[in-house]
Amino acid sequence: MKHYLTIALTALLLTGCGKDKKENNEIETEPVVALAFETKEYKATSSLPCKEHCPKVAIEVTEATGPQPTADSINKKIFNTVREIIYYGEKPYDATNYDELTASFIQSYEELKKEFPKEMLGWEGTIAATVTHRTDSLLNITLNHFTYTGGAHGYAGTRSLLFDPKTGHALAYRDIFNDVKSFTDYAEKSFRKKFKIEAMQSINSTGFMFENETFVLPNAIFFQEDGLLLYYNTYEVSSYAEGAKELLLPYKEIEQYLKVK
């Protein structure tokens, strides 16, 4: 009888251990949620009567989903950048989401329209934010935008947001280049060559408007299939009439400067 009891207890213990081991394995092999993106659209128009040149705001953004806080960090950076573009007045609106942002823009229009009913033309604010480059170490989101809130013409521009896809942290130049100064020196030589500015001449000698006559990297840098694009938006180093300026540097020529690609 004792012999059978010992066998039963042993079998029970083995079953329990096997169950615990199976449960542990299930925990260890849970699938990792990958970072993904989906497009969201937000639009608004005025409720005031309008026959032509009617105001409108349309925001199309790529929204990150997946692991936190990575996705949330990316989405917050995108929203804050959009908020810096779509506004009227001395500072951006205190909006906390896209619906509030579009409503605030239209509200600003309506307030001025009621005050100056014959002088107001239709405002416009459009933004399209998309993922344009993605690797294991780098995420590049491009924002193309246009705004018009009166005056002779509107303003079109392009912004670049660079992220670490593992953490969602925005990348600065020091995170991208091994030596920012050395890369800047190389970029200046390439810029002078493209725009035919002699080495001994001022960087502004042909009409550019670099502050303090000192070459600097642009606010927008894009990682493309064929190289790194340095993009100077209108007014950054040139007039509205001159438009934006671009400098494409092939990866094979700048490999030594890059931390990520």
Number of domains: 2
The CATH first-level class of the largest domain comes to Alpha Beta
Helix content: 25-40%
Biggest sheet, in brief?
A: 5 strands, mixed
What is the number of helices? 6
Give the percentage of residues in beta strands: 25-35%
Structural shape: flat
Question: What would the CATH topology of the largest domain be?
Answer: Heat Shock Protein 90
Radius of gyration: 27 Å
Task: Provide the CATH superfamily of the largest domain.
Answer: Fervidobacterium nodosum Rt17-B1 like
Summing up helix and strand content along with how strands pair, one would put the structural category as: alpha+beta
* Element string (H = helix, E = strand): HEEHHEEEHHEEEH
Low-confidence stretches: 1-14
Q: What CATH architecture of the largest domain do you see?
A: 2-Layer Sandwich
Tell me the strand order in the biggest sheet: 1-2-3-4-5
- Total number of strands: 8
Domain Deacetylase PdaC: 69-154
Protein name: DUF3298 domain-containing protein
Pfam family, one: DUF3298
Domain DUF3298: 175-252
